[in-house]
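Thread: "does anyone have the structure for this chain?"

Original post by V.I.:
We have the sequence but no experimental structure in hand. Need at least a predicted one for the grant figures.
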Amino acid sequence: MDKLSNWLQICANIGILGGLIMVGFQIYQANSLTAAQLFHENVESTINTQLSMVGENPDASMERIFFEPQLATRRDHLIAERYYHVTIRQLNRASIFAASGLYGGDSAVTPGAFIRLNGHIFASEHGVNWLKRIHVSIPEGRGRELYDELIAVAMAGLKQRKVILSAREK
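Reply from O.Q.:
Generated one for you, tokens below.
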């Protein structure tokens, strides 16, 4: 009977230890989700701040940046840079969330997919040059490859835009 009692006590202790490990894991997950939520709120706050500074008619500014760059004013460039900052913050968020597995393994939600969907925002001489300035300030291995991809998409978009503009002039 003593042997059975000892085995039951050992099994109970193993069960308690397993339960404590599970509680620790749940606390870790809760902390990770809380950190992700705080990061998300910080990104949203930054985005809202940037977008609140573009004024009432940012479309006209972006149109000049894209289609009439020789007529773009300093204000147009500043407005475009607000959009660039917003897009970069969203890309950083997508990268961090994807690396953390917070997208649930959805392969459609990746930094590469985000770049393909939003790279057109940089498809102007100003946008490509802005990206290149940012690119050189990023240390190797810290997401620089994302900027390489973003620059390639922006340059392809710029090339297409130049074809459209030259066709318009004819």
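V.I.: this helps a lot. The CA atoms of residues 34 and 141 lie 26 Å apart.
O.Q.: and The chain has a mean pLDDT of 84.
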